[in-house]
Amino acid sequence: MSIEDLESIALAMVAPGKGIIAMDESTKTIARRFEAVGIKNTQENRRAYRELLLTTPDLSDHISGAILYDETIRQQTSAGMPFTEVLKKAGIICGIKVDKGPVALAGFPGDVVTEGLDGLRSRLEEYAALGAQFAKWRAVIRITEDNPSSTAIEANNHALARYAALCQEAGLVPMVEPEVLMDGDHSMEVSYEVHESVLRSLFNALYEQNVMFEGAILKTSMVVPGCDYTEQASVEEVAEATVRVLKTCVPASLPGVVFLSGGQSDAQSTSHLNAINSVGPHPWPLSFSYGRAMQQSALQLWSGDREANYAEAQKTLYMRAKENGLATLGQWSSE
Ligand code: 13P
């Protein structure tokens, strides 16, 4: 696949007014989400829930792509249509999570590094054959008094860059995701500094591995203070700091940047995105790739009464997509 082909997929992922639904929770992560609302973590429950999300009427009005998990990309609707086919019919680009999650980084207490490079080339080939057009790899950066070490930042970014190069070789757009966690009591300034170090080092690593920026997407956290910090930041402060750090670190040749929600509420994630897009123009489209902030209200409804609330849960998901889609244009308002 040519770089032009990769670039056109990347641009479609961040088409105006649209964003991405992350529904790629690992079996362990979805267990936590299900447990919180009293759903048993069985394969059939996971399949039924993902079917609800993927078959939401008119989802593609505001959703350009969906990130699936290994189990999900192989599943079907109850009527027997493969989920990949459901996406194709709706004109939604199929993405796949390919990392194997973070583990403790030996020698650096508190830091983690994401695994999953071994055997990745053949896994990517298989996912491409199943219909995936982009892939996601999430690195996790924790902030404490002693973390992150520069070694942790480099190790994670080296892995992200190796993964991204393999994706482009396989004809998949890499969505490179360094997530700086909101956990902790750090200030806005510390969050800014960590984001700056991580993003500068990331684009160096991508350059070193010959990754073509034109065919990649950045998925990043926003610059926010830790959830336990005494002073929370205003929506405008978050937008200003987030845009500033991106302009400082991210090459203009990148087709787009998307944000994760990372534990922000629905209202916060949407108002931050809207504010970010109200202070433009920016060198790239700035959109969303939310998991929790897209799904949590729909999951809550579905868990209450699966049959009676089915359509309402889908409507709620559609509304979250619409609100976030408007926020990518700076056109959302809380009314
Ligand atoms: P959240 O929006 O729930 O943080 O999930 C996004 C994601 O895909 C993290 O990798």
Care to describe what's here?
The chain is an alpha/beta fold and 335 residues long. The protein contains twelve helices and ten strands. The protein has an eight-stranded parallel beta barrel, surrounded by seven helices. β7 (173-180), α8 and β8 (217-220) form a beta-alpha-beta unit. α10 runs antiparallel to α11 (292-304). The mean pLDDT is 98. The chain binds 1,3-dihydroxyacetonephosphate. The site of 1,3-dihydroxyacetonephosphate has 10 residues, from α11.
Entry summary:
The protein is of the alpha/beta class and 335 residues long. Helices cover 46% and strands 15% of the residues.
Question: What labels describe this entry?
Answer:
alpha/beta, 46% helix, 335 residues, single chain, binds 1,3-dihydroxyacetonephosphate, two-stranded antiparallel ribbon
Query: What oligomeric arrangement do these chains adopt?
Result: single chain
Average pLDDT metric: 98
Percent of residues in helical segments?
A: 40-55%
N-to-C CA distance: 44 Å
Query: Rg to the nearest angstrom?
Result: 19 Å
* SS class: alpha/beta
| Largest sheet features | 8 strands, parallel, barrel
Kindly report the spatial arrangement of strands forming the biggest sheet.
1-2-3-6-7-8-9-10
Bound molecules: 1,3-dihydroxyacetonephosphate
User: What's the helix-strand series?
Assistant: HEHHEHHEEEHEHEHEHEHEHH
Number of E-state strands: 10
Topology diagram in text:
Layout: H1 3-13, E1 19-22, H2 27-36, H3 43-54, E2 63-68, H4 70-73, H5 83-90, E3 93-97, E4 102-104, E5 112-114, H6 120-130, E6 134-141, H7 150-169, E7 173-180, H8 188-208, E8 217-220, H9 235-249, E9 256-259, H10 266-276, E10 286-290, H11 292-304, H12 310-328
Parallel strand pairs: 1-2, 1-10, 2-3, 3-6, 6-7, 7-8, 8-9, 9-10
Antiparallel strand pairs: 4-5
Bound molecules: 1,3-dihydroxyacetonephosphate.
